[in-house]
Design brief:
By secondary structure, the protein is an all-alpha fold. It has 21 helices and 2 strands. A two-stranded antiparallel ribbon has the order 1-2.
Length: 449
């Protein structure tokens, strides 16, 4: 019955996702589009053009191509690699349809894992697990380019990681670490999550080693190691280990020591005035709140813009320059904390309500208000339940708090597109569907004697 229920939940999740993808449109992209037709629609276009062009290059020439250096400097390789696989299988003319099916299978897997992991009572389990695909469907509707952006793929993998971690055994935690690494290969912000959890895992590993040592000194055969602690160690270290091959590639091929250098673009945007972004065709930066530092500290913004205006759009930067922009932005936040909070909350609420289709001054419709209500309900319910579990000394709840917190925090300082701000809602819904209030996990028996 359990296996049958898991399969049923997965099939419903996959089928409903595919229906949403096939029956809805997202901007000019249609289900019938292939690689050539999408690129033709965006000859100088947005990020999706870059992903598709990189996918074509990988399919034809592999990864070690000079023309890909700029791409890998900004973005991780998973989505263009997926495009390349579809192209190599001679399915490039049906790219959107093929990837719609693949995404549906991924979300079906997510729903099945959450269903089997959840320990809520049956009616509430149905309601909570259903909120995850609903949140994903809303996110698809808010994103103009649907599955051709990395975000829906990354948040699905990250939610799978959360579900597997809460199964509270080492084997599933290992698989969860792989899922978190997959999310990082789709979207760079999840690499920061993997780093944070890896550091936490090392702390837990140190605790486990000390506890085993103390138990040995006390001549106790059972080391009394919490099963949740072992799951966290496996989860974090596997996720981090899976990032190392791409780190090595970037270092050896590009001399790059960071997962992504996109922060240079982000920190240049914050010091661009509205007039400047309009003059260079970068209205989207100001419309989506990317130049927040200029809005909270106009005199400092004018000074920085005067110094950097001749460096192009976005401003060309050295590591020292990026560090200076970041320090000036931090100073602006310290001096004007209320302005900063009001600015970020305002643009965040705007993105949730009207998506990517309007400007900050657009008026949300009834659906926008419903999305806002759904968002606040999910976040408040997840945060309340997770904090209760933390207070009852459940380490998995603490890790989930870090997970969603870091995933959210990495987007606070950049322009706030709907696809950025909606991902935490999906993660919160996934976390709420599996979070448990149990005080601790069981103690693992000793196999070390």
């Amino acid at each position: 019955m359990g296996i049958r229920g898991n399969l049923s939940a997965g099939c419903i999740g996959a089928g409903s996702t595919l229906a949403v993808l096939l029956l809805t449109t997202a901007g000019p992209v249609e289900v019938s589009d292939g690689v050539a037709s999408v690129i033709a629609k965006y000859p100088a276009g947005p990020d999706i053009n870059s992903y598709l062009t990189a996918g074509q290059t990988i399919a034809n020439s592999g990864f070690r191509v000079d023309s890909l250096d700029w791409f890998f400097e900004l973005w991780p390789p998973a989505l263009p690699t997926l495009h390349a696989m579809v192209i190599r299988l001679a399915l490039g003319d049906h790219l959107v349809l093929v990837e719609s099916v693949l995404l549906s299978l991924l979300i079906g897997t997510l729903v099945s894992i959450l269903w089997s992991t959840s320990s809520w009572r049956y009616p509430l389990r149905i309601a909570l697990v259903s909120c995850v695909p609903i949140a994903i469907y809303i996110g698809i509707g808010l994103d103009r380019y649907r599955l051709l952006h990395t975000d829906v793929w990354a948040v699905a993998c990250a939610s799978i990681a959360v579900g597997l971690l809460w199964r509270r055994n080492v084997r599933d935690a290992l698989l969860g670490g792989l899922a978190l690494a997959a999310a990082a290969y789709f979207r760079a912000s999840y690499a920061a999550v993997a780093y944070a959890i890896a550091i936490t895992s090392i702390i837990f590993l140190t605790y486990v080693i000390i506890r085993i040592f103390v138990r040995r000194l006390q001549r106790k055969r059972n080391p009394g190691v919490n099963a949740d602690a072992l799951s966290i160690i496996a989860f974090g270290l596997v996720a981090f280990a899976c990032l190392l091959p791409w780190h090595a590639f970037l270092h050896l091929e590009n001399g790059q020591d960071k997962w992504s250098n996109a922060d240079a673009v982000t920190w240049s945007h914050v010091w661009m005035t509205d007039d400047y972004t309009a003059s260079v065709g970068g209205d989207w930066v100001s419309d989506l709140g990317g130049n927040w530092a200029c809005e909270i500290d106009a005199p400092m913004c004018s000074q920085v813009l005067k110094e950097e205006v001749d460096k192009g759009f976005p401003f060309r930067a050295t590591p020292a320059t990026v560090k200076r922009w970041r320090e000036l932005a931090a100073t602006a936040v310290v001096h004007h904390p209320l302005r900063f909070a009001r600015n970020r909350i305002g643009y965040w609420l705007n993105a949730v309500q009207i998506g990517n289709t309007g400007t900050f001054s657009a008026t949300p419709d009834g659906f926008g208000l419903l999305r806002l209500l759904f968002t606040l309900t999910m976040l408040v319910a997840w945060l309340t339940t997770t904090l209760r579990s933390c207070f009852r000394r459940n380490p998995l709840a603490f890790i989930t708090l870090i997970f969603v917190g870091v995933a959210t925090g990495t987007n606070v300082f950049q322009h706030l597109e709907a696809r950025y701000v909606w991902a935490p809602v999906v993660l919160a819904a996934a976390g709420l569907s599996v979070v448990r209030i149990a005080k601790t996990g069981s103690e693992m028996p000793s196999h070390l004697d």
